[in-house]
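== Sequence entry ==
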Amino acid sequence: MCNVEDGAMSEFFFDEQGDRRMEQQNREHWKALAELIAQAIRQDRLPHTLDVLDIGCHAGGLLLQLFERLRANNKHEIARVAGVEPIADVRRRAAECFGEAQFFPTLQDVPDQYAHLVVSHESLYLVPDLAEWVRQLKRVLRPKGRAFIALGCHGENTAWLRWRVPLVKLYGHHSYVHHPMEILQAGADAGFAMELHRLYPQPKQSMRYSPPEDGWGEFISAQEMLEHARQKYVFVFSLRE
C-alpha cells in the first residue's frame, strides 16, 4: 500500500472511533466491489479456485464481504486469503479473524505470483510511486490473474482534492494525487490489459448526510454530494494471456 511498516493508527486514521466509523461506511462500497468481482467470475474470467490478496486490507472487512458474496457461487471457491496492512495492531486483528491467512506489512513482502485475484479499496492514494506499485502488482499476480482496484480519492474528485489539504494540517495524513487516465496508462505501460468501471453503475438517488468533521469533509452543493459516489472507479488490471 505504501512504504510504511508497523505504522501507528494515527498515521492513517483519526482515532479508534473514527476507524470503526470508517469500516461501517465502507461496507456498502465493499459489497458493490464484491458484486463486480462476482460478475467477472460468472463470466469465467477467473480461475475456479482462487487465492485472494487484499492490498490495504485493514482488519479484513472486504475479504469477509468477498467470502459472503462468492459463497453463493458453487463453481468457485477461495482457497487462500492474504492481505497487505502496514499497521501492526490491525494486522494482528485480521490474523485473529482469518486463522491461517497471511498478512504482510508491505506489498514488497508478498511472494511472486502469489494470487489469482488482487483487490483493493481506497489505498492507491497512499502510494507515492504509481509505476513501482504497478510493477509490484504484476509481480504478485499469477498468470491470467486480475486485480480490481477501487478508488474515489483521485485527481478528478474535486471534493477529495479539497479535503486532502486540511487532512494534512489537522492529522498529518499525507496522500498522493493520481489521475484516472494516469492509472490506466501506467497499467498499460506495464503490460496489463486495462478496464475502467464505475463502482456504482447506476446513479445513487440518495445519500446520508454527515456533517463535516473538524473542518474537512464538506460538500459545496447538493449535486456534488449526490455525485460523490459516482467518482468511485474500479480499475481492472488483467495479465495478458
